[in-house]
Each structure stands twice: as C-alpha cells, then as structure tokens.
Amino acid sequence: MPLFHARYISRDGRRRTVKLDAVDLPSLFEHIESNRKAYVVDIQRVDGRRWSSARVRISSQLLLAALDSLELMLMSGVRINTALRTLAECAPPGAARGLWTEVVRLIEETGSFGESLRRFPKVFNDSMIGVISAHEAAGRLAEGVGHVRGYVAQMQEIRRESMRGMAYPALVGATGLASSLVLCVFTLPRFSKMLRDIGVTKVNRITGFFFGLSEFVVHHPGIAALAFCLPFAAAWMARHPRFRPSFDSLTVRIPMVRGAVEALSMARICVTYRALSESGIRVVEALEFCAVVAGNAVYSRGIGLVVAAVRGNATVGTGFERAGVFAPEVVLAVKSGEGSLPQVFGRLADYYTAESRHRVALALRMIEPAMLVLVLAWVFGIALAVVLPVVEIMDEIH
User: Fold this and answer.
1) Cα dist. 41→50, 210, 225, 370 in Å?
2) Smallest Cα–Cα separation from 145: which of 76, 96, 56?
3) Among residues 125, 102, 112, 127, which one has the least CA distance to residue 24?
4) What is residue 26's predicted lDDT score, i.e. its pLDDT?
5) What is the per-residue pLDDT across 341-390, written as a single tens digit (0 to 9) for each?
6) Cβ distance 256 to 370 under 8 Å?
7) Which of 7, 52, 316, 350 pairs as cysteine with 41 (C-beta 3.0–4.6 A)?
C-alpha cells in the first residue's frame, strides 16, 4: 500500500504537509480537497516503505466500529468497494487506515472481500473469513458482516474476562518481586553493616537466611536479574507453541483455575461454532475452526478427536463423549440435540459466556487469600530478620 507525502494550502492560507496512505492519487486528491477543504500543491509518493499485511494489528474497538459502519452501509445498498473507501477515509491515521486502504486495493484486484481479508491474519482469523466468504458467495454480505461483528464482540468479552483473571496474580507477583529486590539490595545490606559495626557477629537463623540472600543478590546481580525476569519468561513460555500444550495441561489440573479455564475455552468454542453454523459452514469445518480458537491445547485436542470421530461416521455427540475432556452436561446437550446443533451450541455459548464471568471471579476469590498468605509470610520473615537482632542486643545489654 503506497504512502504519499502531500503539500497543500489550508483554508486559512497556511502551507501544510501531511503523510497519508491512499490507494491512488485521485482518491488522495479527493480526500484532501473534500475533508480538509484545502488546495493541493504537490503530492509525492514515498518509496522504499516496508509494509507487511501479515503483521498488521488494530484494536478490537476500532474493528467493531468499522464492522458496524460497514454493515450499515451495505444494508443501505452501498457497494462494497465504495463502503470500504469510505471506511479508509474516515479511519484514524495509522494501522486502521492502512488496513482498510489495502483492503480496497486488494478487493479491486481480486474481486473477493473474503480473500482480501485473508491477508490480515492478525486481525481476521479463519473463522471470521469463513463467515464472510460463505455469506459473500450467497449474496448476503451485509448479514455476514453483522455475524462477524457479533462474533468479535463476544470474543472480546471473553478475552476481557481472561485478562481480568490473569491481571491480579501478575500484578501481585511483580510487586512482590520488585519490593524483595529493593529490600535485598538496599535495606538489608545496610542493616547488616550496622550490626557488624556495633560488634554483632552471630545472628539467629532467620536473620542469617535473609542476610545470606541479600549478599547473594548483591554479589550475583545477573542471577538476581534472571529471577526478576522469571514471570515474563513464564508468560512467554505460556504463549510459545512449543511449551503451550504443557502449560495448558497444567492449568486444567490446578483446582483453583480449572473451572475458569474450562468456561473460557468452551465459550470460545461455542461462540465460534454458532457463528459458523449460522453462516452455513459444514459441521466438520466449523469444528476445525473451533479447535483453532479454543485457547487451550487440551480442548483443542478434544475438538480434534471430535472431528476425527465425525470423519469416521460417528455422531458429534459420540465424538464429544469419546474425547473425554468435556463436561458431562456438554456431552448430554450435544447428544440430545444432534438434530439442532446450532441452537444447542448457541445456548451453550450464552451459558458459558455468563459462566466465565462467575468462574473467573470465583478463581480470583480463591487465589487472593493464597497470594495474601504468601506475601504476609514473606513480610513477616523480613520483619523477624530485622527485629530479632535488636531484641537480642537489648537482652545482652540488660
């Protein structure tokens, strides 16, 4: 997508410059003259610009607003390329404007909206593209955009609950590590020096442990820095494809978070299946998309087993039962509703979307006391390490 450097004279008579993305020069001329009410002096294309559509990201709020506007324009009878040009002109400068400008160019080259969106995997996943392509082929593109908008809104709500569940433990852990580092580097060494200056050579075990830890941190700063980076390394490993299955298997075994993980994964699966099935996607293809967006490797493998069972001429309910990872109520609902799976998964999506809020809140209520006990134990240990030598000195004086 080309980038242009434009010089123009504004309504107040001042000469101004701006850099804008545009499909071509005529559209850029029209944008500056109509939106900025200005006279174009010169426009030059900026060469050598690197553009990778596969890396483009925009916020969910901007995507929802764009999809909502696109749906309204398509329902009003506006052609898709004209609607996309309007989106590109009205989008804020940056990735959002660049995305829709590039989509305009791609759709004029390929003639397919779904295939144009496939160039942006960080914004539009396979499920969203499948819905768009199915409705585009059926001539109901406005309805497909509406389905995608609803899907994005529900997935954003599920993602928000997931982030809320991880924010508190991460914040407490980072704060605890930072405060421990300050104590070990600044406070305890000075207190240890003070005791040595007044002639104290022997201290109790608790004080000796914390003094030894402080000396280790001071004399080995590299190892201390690595310890401080452990939470970030754990977060990276949890997202890396090589370590993700092991991490997901561990989370479903922890009693405090197992319910929240199940609710979030099932909400993603059921919301995706409902959106795809309402768009006319076949059962096997819809389940394959569900395995990709499950968010947990255990449930992704479970959906993979369901797909294998369906390909082997088994029913969907039998596949869910054989997988062995889904709750009994899910298996019962799917087996009893084989003839109306879209409605079954729709009700399950509503249930697990609401249940994810409750289970995340419950997990937080269980994690908070455990982390509070750990923090209090650490603080109490440091307090004892400081107070006990003072008490021993006072006893010797008396």
Assistant:
1) 26, 71, 55, 66
2) 76
3) 102
4) 67
5) 889 999 998 899 888 888 888 877 777 777 778 878 887 888 888 788 87
6) yes
7) 7
Query: At residue 282, what is the residue type?
Result: R
**Measured between alpha carbons, how far apart are the two ends of the chain, in Å?**
83
User: CA 227 to CA 223: how far, in whole Å?
Assistant: 6
Q: What is the pLDDT of residue 250?
A: 84
As given in the structure block, the two tokens for residue 228 are 């401080």
- Residue 55 DSSP code: G
Q: How confident is the model at residue 2 (pLDDT cuts 50, 70, 90)?
A: low
Could you write out the three-class secondary structure of 368-395?
A: HHHHHHHHHHHHHHHHHHHHHHHHHHHH
Mean of the per-residue pLDDT values of the chain? 82
Beta strands in the chain (DSSP E): 3-9, 15-21, 39-46
How many of the other CB atoms lie within 10 Å of CB of 202? Answer: 9
